[in-house]
Amino acid sequence: MTAKAKMSGVKGSGRQRRLSEWLTPRRITVLVLVVIALVFIFENTDDTEIRLLIPLVTMPLWLALLGVGVIGALCGALFMSRRR
Question: CA 77: distance to chain centroid?
Fold first, then answer.
């Protein structure tokens, strides 16, 4: 227990502090955006035709959206890792 928690008589404040350190505004924003993207992806389940350079492919739209999202996340992670 921290000295402040001992003085106030509150137990378990260490766990609250760890949770509040983990839930930063940036992480909450990313979590909300991921949930919105997943809802959007799985609401669009119809088949669609997609042209991949030359071949025409018929696939579920959610799979195409998920694939583009993964590619975008990988590109973002690559650029962020090079920036550090």
Answer: 12
Mean pLDDT by 10 residues, the chain (84 residues): 52 66 85 89 88 87 89 89 70
CA angle (27 as vertex; 30, 70 as ends), nearest 5:
35
Q: Are 69 and 42 in contact (CB under 8 A)?
A: no
50 with 59: CB under 8 angstroms? yes
Pick from 35, 40, 80: nearest CA to 61 = 40
Q: For the whole model, what pTM was predicted?
A: 0.57
The gap between the terminal CA atoms of the chain, to the nearest Å, is 35
Tokens of 52: 């991949």
